[in-house]
Design brief:
21% of the residues lie in helices and 37% in strands. The chain contains one helix and three strands; from the N terminus they run ββαβ. A three-stranded antiparallel sheet has the order 2-1-3. The protein has 62 residues and is an alpha+beta fold.
């Protein structure tokens, strides 16, 4: 199955929005895309991301 590029924007406790590129199949579930970006953010140097699925913005890129 071909991977597609998704943009996932997460809100963080510092009030900023952090955007991540996630590669996943076209039929990937939004929750899976959210958690992939959230775990990537959580392992980085930035302030903690809010784990609010409804606050995330998920879009297919290209």
């Amino acid at each position: 199955m071909e991977s597609r590029c998704w943009m996932v924007a997460l809100l963080a406790i510092d009030g900023r929005q952090y955007v991540y590129r996630v590669y996943a199949p076209a039929d990937a579930l939004p929750a899976d895309l959210f958690w992939e970006a959230w775990h990537c953010h959580d392992e980085g140097p930035f302030p903690r991301a809010l784990d609010l699925f409804d606050a995330a913005v998920i879009q297919h890129v290209g």
